[in-house]
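User: For my dataset I need records formatted as: sequence, then structure tokens, nothing else. Please produce one.
Assistant:
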Amino acid sequence: MLPIGSTIGIIGGGQLGRMLALSAAQLGMKTIIFCPDENSPAFDVTPNKIIAPYDDENALTKFANSCDIITFEFENLPAKSIKFLESISSVSPDSRALFISQDRIKEKEFLLRSDINIASFAPVNSIEDLEKAYLKIGPKAVLKTTRMGYDGKGQRIVSSLEMAKQAYEELKNSELVLEKFIPFEREISVVIARNKDGQVRDFEPAENIHENHILKTSTIPANIDNITAKRASRIAQQIVGSLNYVGVLGVEFFITSADPKSADQNPILLVNEIAPRVHNSGHWTQAGCITDQFEQHIRAICNWPLGDPTRYCDVVMENLIGDEIIDAHKNLKSGVQPHFYGKKQIREGRKMAHLNIVTK
């Protein structure tokens, strides 16, 4: 259990790193941010930073020797660098969780080994692989890169073999996977935390709506029954247990109708993906819970007792994307909790802020 006043190293200087640093300060911890971008918004909230590439071993060594514990705010990092840091300091979550979650095929294979339901998939390493996979998985499917895909990047929805071949030509310089397209009724996510002693606490599921493949809103409570909520919670607990995970993890689910031929008429839950970090769909906890996901992550990696995740109000979290940030401060109403990220450049599709709107 790390004492108050310890130093937490955060890899990544985006909004998640910024909010982690703010929560760490609230708990009396110091932080140091490692990021190659000198304009990182996380730099605004802590005086300690290292600006260097994520694979610079000299800078990583200096960073590790300055920290009591290291964590990261996003998963598209060189796994080799995290492994290197583990040889010097303690890293939570660990390199195994990162290695599994940053590759779609490895992630799916892990979930299958853990006896968790997912959509049908097949690796695609050639046009011949694609043809065989499409015949098995089609007629509607999604061709994705196995790495670096988020907010709709690196994926194509296909509904014919001709479309699949065209998508393959566009993406073929990357490792690919073909997944069955799931006509889901709704998408939910569970944000869950586990500390080093094995204590586990999860927040209740949020219902997510995407626009242009980017999360737009997360609504609490989700429009699901208690049985489905408890099943999602158990699956999330199973995942963190199987990974021996430490920190906060996001688990995204698709919900579909039960097979009418099945004796079990409960909705079907399919895990879409896992994220080894605090999660955009968990931002609502800042307004809805005594302990939000950022404080929970700091507690978990420091091996403190986890906080109470009970929800005490209804919340809609809304992302402000691109130029929606312009003049957003002029229209704030009572019951709206703003979180502006301080990003200097506005770009189409870039998450600039979020609002937590208390609805009840």
